[in-house]
Amino acid sequence: MLNKIYKLGELTLMKTFKEKERNTHELKELFCECTLSCNAKCKHCGSYAEKRKYEDELTTEEIKQAFNQIAHDMNAKNIIIYVTGGEPLVRKDLFEVMEYATNELGFRWGMTTNGILLNETNIQKLKKSNMETISISIDGLEETHDKFRGVPGSYKTIINNIKNLKEAGYVKHLQVTTVFHKENIGQIEELYQVMLGLGLDSWRLVSMDPIGRAQENDNLLLNGSEIKQILNFIKSKKKEKHLDLMYGCPGFLGLDYEKEVRNQYFYCRTGINIASILYNGDLFVCPNVPRRKELLQGNIRKDNFKEIWDNKYEIFRDKNRTKCEECENCEYWEYCLGGAFHTWNFEEKSQNKCTYKMMQER
Description:
Blueprint: H1 2-24, E1 29-33, H2 60-73, E2 80-84, H3 94-104, E3 108-113, H4 120-128, E4 133-137, H5 142-149, H6 154-168, E5 173-180, H7 188-196, E6 202-207, H8 224-240, E7 245-247, E8 274-277, E9 282-284, E10 298-299, H9 305-311, H10 325-328, H11 333-336, E11 344-345, E12 350-351, H12 355-360
Parallel strand pairs: 1-2, 1-8, 2-3, 3-4, 4-5, 5-6, 6-7
Antiparallel strand pairs: 8-9, 9-10, 11-12
């Protein structure tokens, strides 16, 4: 009881903090979706990425010019670039671009990758381009992972690549992210043992969200009881302190789990201090948010990023941006504010994935 009272006190303080953040909206994280091309075809991909050429992709010089403009107008040292895709490593110019961003402009950077192309040559090129953090996807034991990602043999390749990257010794934070679904939820303990053997800094566990290609594979989505299984697993393993486990960002989890399975309380910061440049130059927020025309804020080919960041993004900074009658009547509305923006249903004006509600259902 005392713990819950303490949490409610912290959450009350968080309300003031979030209000200030919405007003100041200092950019801290910039996602660079350098391509939508991918060497896999994952069943959960929010961007529908696959192995093909996407028209209108930013060129090497256009990405450099975008970074240069942002560094000139803002403080690059206060912004970390997270490179995403598709699969970032299919772009041969990635190393050149990011070496320029770090050495010439002063940005820090990390990457999200499926890990298949993380061979020894690319590991050394990433070192030269000063990559600090990396999150690599492993979505089940061998057979399950390969099926989910659509690439036979990829599991063994990725495990070997992670070991080589660890041995290289320069990455400041090495993370594996696992998306849990119906076909791998029963493998959670075995996967934990695999992660322990890789020498990771953290293991990020995420439940599959009803976005993108996952909507075509909704038979794989977890129910509330299965999500609770993940959260209880994280709580129990945190006590052992062998590996830093954390749950992904989607949704307020209730007082039994908030700040127990993540290091912070739920807070959807998209458009508040998180922005992105999409593969075609569109200025946006977290790349997993539905790419609706009314949500796109501009394009780096014709717009100045700082001007757009300072003067637009209003919908994302509105406290009531995901407000509905059900949310408004929830006891945790003022702490949750409608949940994660990327799972918001814009047609029905409701939350597609309220984790807290799901866990209350029998």
